[in-house]
Amino acid sequence: MVAIIKTSHSIQHILNYNENKVKAGVAECISAENYPIDLEKLNFTLKLTRFLKLAQLNENAKRNTVHISLNFDTSENHSKEKLIEISNVYMQKIGFGKQPYLVYEHQDAGHPHVHIVTNNIQRDGKRIDLHLLGIRKSEPARKEIEELFGLVKAQDRKVKEPLLLTPISTPRINYGKVESKKAISTILNFVVNEYKYTSLPELNAVLKQYNVLADRGKEDSRVFKNNGILYKILDKNGKTLGVPIKASDFYTKPTLKNLEGNFKLNKVKRTKHQAYTKNEIDKILQSNKQYSLDSFVSQLQSKGIHAALRKSSEGQLYGITYIDHRTKCVFNGSALGKQYSAKAIVERCLSENKNEKLQLTDLKLDTSYQILNGTSNLEKGLEILFKPEQNLEGLSEQQRNKKKKKSKRKGFRLS
Fold first, then answer.
1. Mean per-residue pLDDT of the chain
2. Residue that wins the pLDDT comparison between 405 and 182
């Protein structure tokens, strides 16, 4: 189980979000705890009023709304009764057992999860401390609940994930067969939070594998000028299908502003994994085998690294992005170094006779050694080249001069 806690200053905004999910048919309010009226008799106004009255008891509290999601493994299928019981135990353990709270079961993602809406102002006007609530209270509660209810442990999932060679188990979006927003949301929740990308093109390199695109539009468009992002479904040819969905419409808010925050953090986080990715690329290219670009990409894929090739409309390769699914890091080729850019990789793939020993026929001897008596003779040239030097020591000057003149007439000058 994974617990995510978010705080806000607007209870109405959070309540609206969950109630709109109910109206859309992708969520259900399954429990209303510490309310004086049964759930069946509660309407939106009554739900909101309960929270607002408590908030009025401490108007100095700027952030008085708590929004919690409890997320379970895809292999788990819990009944409503069990989800309510888990939620109640969790709220009790983090100190919110006596607060009014609503539990919503959502069906708009690829895993079972519930959302809990509450506030932190108590009946006496005192507020429940939210500082480091996740570390102080939520983490110990999560671990106890996993044991108590026999849930899949979050720590076990973290251990298994790096071993996966594919991005996520969710199948690629096929427009018209699944609810579009739900399908995009499932992919965004995983990719945006798990992968380490430092630019929108790097993020898109991952998203495009699942027929999703984060699009800012043209520079003169209203979306671009307002720093907006639209998420689109793509067909197999990369063309848009259906109606684009605004980033702000998703619960996780994968807006440009939030993504830019990720860009900065990920630049630091991915640094320690850079050497691993480079090493895997080098091991393939430095082997004795010769690779075409396609076979190089295939070999990388077997190592858990996807090479996204960027080509012009004419089909000319101009860039390459490496997506390392083991470390969940995304690197533009030039970010790893010049030798990992698209141009360099093509040159390295096409290089011939790699690691081959230099042959004697490749040696270029000086012409003074090759040309003997007006003819080219490599064998005689080598023989002379490696012939021991004559020892002229101990001879008179006249004798040495005679030796030199004799050697000069033969066409070979001793030094």
1. 80
2. 182
| pLDDT recorded at residue 186 | 81
Distance in angstroms (rounded) separating the CA atoms of residues 297 and 288: 17
Give, as one character, the DSSP assignment of residue 333: H
pLDDT tens per residue, range 127-136 = 999 988 989 9
CA distance 250 to 236: 24
Comparing CA positions, the residue from 156, 23, 138, 164 lying closest to residue 70 is 138
Total count of residues recorded for the chain: 415
Assessment of whether the complete model's pTM goes beyond 0.85: no
Distance between CA atoms of residues 174 and 211, nearest Å: 8
Nearest to 152 by CA among 111, 103, 109: 111
Q: What pLDDT sits at residue 288?
A: 57
Average pLDDT estimate for 359-363? 35
Distance from C-alpha of 394 to C-alpha of 104, rounded to nearest angstrom: 107
Q: Which amino acid is at 7?
A: T
3-state secondary structure of 331: strand
Q: If you search the block for the tokens 């579009």, which residue do you land on?
A: 180
**279-305 pLDDT tens trace:** 999 888 887 566 788 888 988 988 889
Tokens of 97: 């057992």
CA 183 centroid distance within chain: 19
Residue 345 and residue 333 in contact, taking contact as beta carbons nearer than 8 Å: yes
Q: Are the CB atoms for 246 and 271 separated by under 8 Å?
A: no
Q: Which has the closest alpha carbon to 83: 30, 33, 119, 134?
A: 30
| CA nearest neighbour of 333 among 347, 346, 319 | 319
Query: Are 414 and 389 contacting, i.e. CB atoms less than 8 angstroms apart?
Result: yes
Q: Which amino acid is at 1?
A: M
Angle between helices 256-269 and 200-207 (to 10 degrees): 90
